[in-house]
Amino acid sequence: MSLEKKQSDEIIQVEHLENVQDVQYDPEFERKTIRQIDRRMLPLLGPLLGLLYSVALADRDAFTLGLLYSVALADRSNLSIARTAGMEEDLQIEIGNRYSVVSCLYFVPYILLQLPSNAVLRYFGVRYCMTVYVIGWGIAQLGMAFVKTWEQLLVCRVLLGAFEAGFFPAMTFVITTWYKRHEMQTRLAFFYLSAILIAGFAPILSYVISLLKGKGGLNGWNWIFLIEGLLTIILGIIAYFYIVDFPDRNTFLTPEQTKFVLTRVQQDRGDALADTITAQKVFKHLGDWLIWAYSVMFMAGAMVSYAIAFFNTTILRSMGYSVAASILLTTPPFLASVISAFILSRLSDRMKHRAGFIAFQAMITIAGLACMAYAKQNGVRYFGIFLAYMGASGVIPGSLAYAANNVVSHSKRSVSTALIVIWGGIGGILGTTVFRQQDAPRYINGIWATIGAQLLVLVLLMCTTITLRMRNKRSREGKMKEPLEGQPGFYYTL
């Protein structure tokens, strides 16, 4: 029997979920099932530890999502490493704003293809879509190893953005369909932070690869794209067999476990099974200003993260560090951001609260950016990079969870996650363009632009908190014409 036929036969459909509010499950059965889902869906302690754990348990999928997204982050951000490894001289991208153009045009197809890719995800299936995405961007990355001009590099970057467009919103969408609302941020943090943890070591890997300079007639930057592109293609092929689908289509749980997963989601927010996505629904969901507010918050965090990813080595070089030291010093801020953001995400889930934690991390980001701009000592400026990245890395999963907690139905979840990541792409464009070459080495204008984005986050948090609190109050008092989000018993998470 073919793998496709086997998977089709094992798809478990659970219907009749209308009267599940009083259904109870054995706590041990619940704990075991959730732990099994976590191992399958997310990296346990990060992709590398997840890999070791999965080998020990013969659980091949424990690390897949985080590892693939780690590769995506590394592939999109290794441009700055390649720049210091000889690409700047070979392709003359230091002339004018060429580097910024090459960096930011990646985000044009990345933005335009977010919503369409999420809309067709259930139709084509998660496994097929994700395999095409990963192999596609691996081929684009491989092509970058052989470009001769900066224009050719630009074309490859555009293709890279096109194939990576569907990955992050799809994974966010899928993850949020498996868990209850106040379990999401910890899982999203595992997914995102474990990914940036391994991506934080990517500069070291890229530097080691660049030492192959001269081998085979290739420069160091050629080898970076060549090896990392081949690795991505191989992972894409392997991932075809391991990617996890939506709960109602899963093939790794027993029928009883699947019913349990769908029942607890139905009890929590009433959207265990998918509704049909139509153009009318898409436009209706886009008319909700709240999902635009969550999206702008995500943009603010992404703007800082991309700016640091693309200009970190340049800023460190301006402090007087060598090429090797500037590359190696990019890793510690990634590690610190993983620890801080995960701790705060865990607290946010336990307290069932989002806005306050996002506000706190936005203020940390502002403090870090101010240090980067105005501190006179290099040590303080470097500490500013820590603070800025720690804050921004927390805003990203926080915004995702804030949005995921306050929408109901698969169609609205699909639209909201796509819109959020679209704005993340806009943040990438801003992060790579407001840091202009002529403003080096401190990039004061770019830093003030990113500070302004964090201030906007604080304003939006105030507006959303007031709105959601008032809606919850009116619903509890019976003053609403219909239930919140059309779901009886549903209340917004503040």
From TrEMBL:
Keyword Transport: yes
One GO term describing the cellular component: membrane
Entries under InterPro entries matching the protein: MFS, MFS_dom, MFS_trans_sf
Any Pfam family: MFS_1
Entry annotated with the keyword Chaperone: no
Keywords: Membrane, Transmembrane, Transmembrane helix, Transport
Subcellular localization: Membrane
Main location per the UniProt record: membrane
Ranges annotated as spanning the membrane: 41-58, 95-113, 125-146, 158-178, 190-209, 221-243, 289-311, 323-344, 356-375, 381-403, 415-435, 447-470
Membrane topology: Multi-pass membrane protein
Annotated ranges, domain Major facilitator superfamily (MFS) profile: 54-471
A GO molecular function held by the record: transmembrane transporter activity
Protein name: Major facilitator superfamily (MFS) profile domain-containing protein
